[in-house]
Fold:
Amino acid sequence: MTGATRTTKRVFSGIQPSGGLHLGNYIGAIRNWVEEQDRYENIFCVVDQHAITVDYDPAQLRSHTRQTVGLYLACGLDPERCTIFVQSHVPEHTELAWLLNCVTPMGWLERMTQFKEKSAGGGERVSTGLFTYPVLMAADILLYQADGVPVGEDQKQHVELARDIAARFNRLFGDTFTVPEPWIRPVGARVMGFDDPSRKMSKSADGQYHSVALLDEPDQIRRTIMRAVTDSERDIVFNPERPGLFNLLTVFQALSGQSKQEIETHFAGQGYGHLKRELADLVIAALEPIQARYRDITADPARIDQLLARSVARLRPIVDDTMARVRVAMGHR
Ligand code: TYM
Structure:
């Protein structure tokens, strides 16, 4: 069934288990999935095959994959309302990626800004997988005929590519795929590094005070936020030209749910130290229940295994239906 015939919209999104999840992943993605899980049919993936496109350690990948599943649950995704699974458990992702590689012009991939950034100066360490990574991402989304893809700002170009690939496939081979849309929230879609507000907060960045990981201890969270790079001005206002302060205020806005106006009034006449202390309290309070649930969930490893096995079974009819149609359309059956 494609999107045109469904009454409830289907959502698909994913996160790479390439390191500990951070506040950017939470504010830009997971939190929004959790808030809207009643409105849609939800499929959330841990994309372990995307995580091998750069140097990695297999043992760490294995443990980060499980940690990410645990964090999805701990952040509030309800396995009754969301299907949570691991990409490599459904081999059709890579099968479909190959087929889509053959309908994706190379020029489209050469334009991807994330590839340009990640490959710069990498020489032979730049794998072909890193180049075709967005095609695997398109396969993830199109395999499930998703209508909406809730992501942070940095993934917009990739979701738009998935749209273009779907439209091109439909034109060449007949109507097969739902054409998906990126869903990006206006607040918190691009959380910046606390140590350098010109760089997006990322799992792979170095620097002890770059990000707040969802499983960081309260002391570490407070240290990172208190050291956050700001500027030498005084007044606390939302101004994108003061990126360090803007980032702190954006995180505050996303986690408090208050308006810009309320926040500016609240901090009027206060200094940066005061803002940082309140922000650290807010972040610690937001992460505390997540960390407690995470400990509880991961105390029983069998629980995660059972959940993942059940998810694969639940997804099977969708996967089989899409692949049957793709194979016929492309002339393999
Ligand atoms: P990844 O693992 O880099 O990030 C996961 C999600 O978190 C968002 N995000 C951020 N949001 C705000 N501020 C930040 N600093 C920040 N950093 C990350 C991302 O936008 C994303 O929503 N290619 C994807 C994973 C993927 C995927 C998919 C996503 C693979 N297949 C299919 C959606 C649908 C990635 O590397 O995300």
Remarks:
- The mean pLDDT is 96.
- Residues 218 and 284 are 6 Å apart (CA to CA).
- Residues 301-330 form the longest helix (30 residues).
